[in-house]
Write a structure and sequence with these properties.
The protein is of the alpha+beta class. The protein is built from twelve helices and nine strands. The longest helix is centred in the last third of the chain and has 27 residues.
Length: about 290
């Protein structure tokens, strides 16, 4: 474990240690959701400890996630288990598509008039941009939420550059590009460590660090069609690095999951169909 901790402390999440609730969301999205959505509290505490988060903070964060309707508690003898609610499972599944689905290709658009503040917040959180007033636009990607009065639209004509200029003027693509570049710089050194085949626990913690950092950027990405992205878009490099590292670390990490992490019926499945589908999709990016 020392190698994993030293690498993490020097290069990964230590400048901005993850909050307990957000790390738990990452753990459930990466490890638990594709394996049925239920995890023993003891495992959750152990995984969070690998990031310097103590048991008290984990229990407080879990209680808050329960109150928000994302987790529900279950008892089996003296052990406590926490399961994803149906609503949270659907949200996690939609987010997973942007991490593990096919590379973003050309697509049409969603234009919506939305005046409700809470719904506008949802739109902005899922990659829409404001065109002014209560009008929002987003790339028409799978599972993208719809709010307000929404229409699917097609760009007419060949003025691709005009459309690119418009979208880049209302969304700070330079800042997003810089975040992707920072991600690549921070995680590229992990490639050498991953190729040394670290032990399963270290591989899982490294993979969780990778997913946690990538998730924060990817969920803010409007996922525009390639034709309107800036030249040499740094997101492409980040996507390939993520796919490479995730695939390499999963060999050991999934074995550890199948031998040590529990739901109410026993050990979590090492590589269920949902996990194999993720890995096959990522392999197509390499």
């Amino acid at each position: 474990m020392s190698t994993c901790k030293e690498f993490q402390a020097e290069n990964l999440l230590s400048p901005y240690p993850p909050k307990a609730a957000r790390l738990i969301v990452t753990i459930y999205g990466d490890v638990v959701e594709p394996r049925g959505g239920v995890l023993w509290m003891g495992n959750l505490i152990s995984l969070c400890a690998g990031f310097g988060i103590n048991e008290s903070l984990v229990r407080t964060a879990v209680s808050r996630l329960v109150s928000r309707g994302q987790l529900s508690g279950q008892r089996e003898g003296r052990r406590s288990f926490y399961a994803l609610t149906d609503a949270a499972s659907a949200e996690y599944h939609a987010a997973a598509e942007s991490f593990y689905g096919e590379l973003d290709g050309e697509c049409d658009w969603i234009i919506t008039h939305c005046s409700e503040q809470s719904s506008q917040t949802v739109l902005l959180r899922h990659g829409y941009v404001s065109l002014g007033g209560d009008v929002f636009a987003g790339a028409d990607r799978p599972d993208r939420p719809l709010r307000g009065t929404a229409f699917r639209a097609v760009s007419i004509g060949d003025e691709t550059q005009d459309l690119a200029d418009l979208l880049q003027s209302v969304f700070n693509m330079e800042a997003l590009s810089a975040d992707y570049s920072d991600f690549v710089r921070a995680f590229r050194p992990m490639r050498n460590l991953a190729e040394t085949k670290p032990d399963g626990q270290s591989a899982l913690l490294l993979r969780l660090a990778l997913v946690h950092a990538y998730r924060d950027i990817r969920l803010r990405d409007p996922r525009f069609p390639p034709s309107v992205l800036p030249d040499n878009w740094t997101g492409c490099d980040a996507h390939r690095l993520f796919a490479d590292l995730y695939s390499t670390l999963s060999e050991q990490a999934d074995v550890y999951i199948g031998r040590h992490l529990l739901n109410r019926r026993g050990l979590l499945e090492e590589r269920p169909e949902a996990v194999l589908s993720r890995l096959n999709s990522l392999a197509d990016r390499l």
